[in-house]
Amino acid sequence: MKRFTAQTADPDTITQELLHGDGAVAISGLFSPEDVAEARAIVMAHSENEGEKVTHFQGAAAEEGKINLQRRVWNLLAKGEVFSRMAAHPVLMAILRKFLGTEFIMGSIAANRILPGGPGQEPHVDYPYWDFHKPETHPFGFNGSFPMNAQVSVLLDPFTEQSGATGYVPGSQKELRYPTAEDRFYDRCEQMTGEPGDVALFYGVTWHCAMPNRADHDRSAILIQYLPKWVKPMEDMPAALPQSFIDAASPDMRQLLGLNYPYPEILDAARAGNTEGRA
User: Fold this and answer.
1) CA triple 42-43-44, angle to 5 deg
2) Integer Cα distance of 86 and 80 in angstroms
3) Is 138 helix (H, G, I), strand (E, B) or coil?
4) What does the pLDDT look like over 1-24, one tens digit per residue?
5) Helix and strand numbers, DSSP H then E, in the chain
6) Are 78 and 241 in contact (CB under 8 A)?
7) Beta-carbon contacts of residue 235 (< 8 Å; ≥ 6 apart)
8) pLDDT over 50 at 64, yes or no
9) CA dihedral in degrees (109, 259, 251, 229; nearest 10)?
10) In the structure, what pLDDT confidence band is assigned to residue 89 with cuts at 50, 70 and 90?
């Protein structure tokens, strides 16, 4: 996995690496230790004593009765301003405007916490590709000529081989299909290792999964999903946010929440001025 800093994270270079290279890059220097500590404290507070929350691709965790060792915290924008800063970091915005179009949106922002002993996930691809194990539900001729997803993981703990740093198969984004047992994922995968505050940015159709946490510490990250503006988001974030947050949202945050994109709308009731140029 190629590594960049905040100063060397060139959008053109990274876009080519996501599409035609390994499918994943690492970027350091975007978030301070104070940012990481603040985000981590909030995630710990909201995941320590709460019941099970929706998560995905649990694999062995479900089979072995260890679901409680993998915990999600949703609706992060409402839980701390630090998460807005992470989601709309200028370096990430510049890269994603190149990769997904200038008006891309955010599909989800959540925390994933895997405790020591957590067995990780099953290999998968991410939304909107994640049900591609049922290819008949997607359009005929569906291909990867353009991306419909980018994933950002902001590391809150050391991501090492021992702690279960995300495993991925370099170049697998070019396959545009769901991984199968015949693909020998665990024999071929590399891991997205890094330190707290680092970012792993990858094309979500790259085969990947959280690996087992065999360390003596948590393996936590903020997971942010980005989509082209016309892809239906996975999470209805505006509905979960207070009106005060919406009213105070910056232009970048309004874009990320999809507030600048009007569809679907009731065109029969739309004012003529709202539909100019859409014929």
Assistant:
1) 90
2) 11
3) coil
4) 999 999 999 999 999 999 999 999
5) 9, 10
6) yes
7) 74, 75, 107, 108, 109, 110
8) yes
9) 70
10) very high
